[in-house]
Amino acid sequence: MSLTLRTISREQHLAYIQSLPSASHCQVPAWADVKNEWRSECLGWFDKSDELVGVGLVLYRQLPKIKRYLAYLPEGPVINWHAPNLEDWLNPMLAHLKQQGAFSVKMGPPVVIRRWEAPTIKKGIQDPDVKRLRDIEADVIEPRAFEVSDRLRKLGWQQGEDGGAGFGDVQPRYVFQVPLANRSLDDVQKSFNQLWRRNIKKADKAGVEVVQGGYDDLPAWQELYEVTAERDRFRPRPLSYFQRQWKALNAEDPNRMRLYIAKHEGEPLAAATMLTVGSHVWYSYGASVNHKREVRPSNAMQWRMLRDAYALGASVYDLRGISDTLDESDHLFGLIQFKVGTGGEAVEYIGEWDFPLNKVLHKALEIYMSKR
């Protein structure tokens, strides 16, 4: 298969994404407006009939003082990852990015390698010898994903070090998903654990109301989010980031980003943002206050978001990043513990991969990042 690669318009890029069942929200053209501190470019792969057969959103981050860039394709590019001629897709991309001044390329192939179902994870948590997801046998192993990894290594790509939760600009390798395709909402709720079902009933009985917010509700979201950041010891993004995200994503598609707020007696107790691309729906950011936890606003909110995702025709409700830890003493354990209650599955992707186009600058970046 003869492929050529060139810069394409945002309109071409979006039309291609819209022709697919789904793609990562990090690969829609509007994501470039969200990440406006990076320079961006839309790439298109064309077959010999000059038909568009793949796209990629590239974000370029400039090195201080010199015109050389890290080129990053988060959860992309959107190509046929199982094609036998993977080098015919990736080599033209590397040549193009080098021409654009890139010294290193980072990408996140959207290729799943393993899946663990909720009962398997629960057994692992109860076993004192099990510390990580990898310590228990996966319910589903995707052999073709190993082929992709092998091919990438042979082509000179290096696997990124981050195999954990991967928050921030580095995308998570492990996520938690609730499959919705070919299931009724009753089936979905029946797969929740007893605690989740009880907490949803508790919230309902206490009068927790979950509403959809708009742009003007983002300051209220920010207040809850900053409380969460202080409690969970992470640096929060500013309100301007979420305002920019809302404007950029919803200008591209009015249903791309939603805000949900769980209230009790009129007081906002929890909030979350939700992103949709095709049949894939993501719970993106979540926040909650430190009081009134007994009325279970977060469970009520997730159940409402899940129902709305189902109504949108989603095939998967994605609760995003988890760590691979099953060790109860690890501070990230609570993430998987909360999400496993939905009866979904932990999903491992093949992770992020780097290609150093200039080994000296790539090494310098690695040293800089390790010190941050």
Automatic annotation (TrEMBL):
It holds the Pfam family FemAB. Gene3D superfamilies: 3.40.630.30. GO terms for biological process: cell wall organization; peptidoglycan biosynthetic process; regulation of cell shape. InterPro entries: Acyl_CoA_acyltransferase, FEMABX, PG_Glycine_Bridge_Synth. One of its GO terms (molecular function) is aminoacyltransferase activity. PROSITE patterns: FEMABX. Keywords: Acyltransferase, Cell shape, Cell wall biogenesis/degradation, Peptidoglycan synthesis, Transferase. Belongs to the FemABX family. This is Peptidoglycan bridge formation glycyltransferase FemA/FemB family protein. It comes from Streptomyces boluensis.
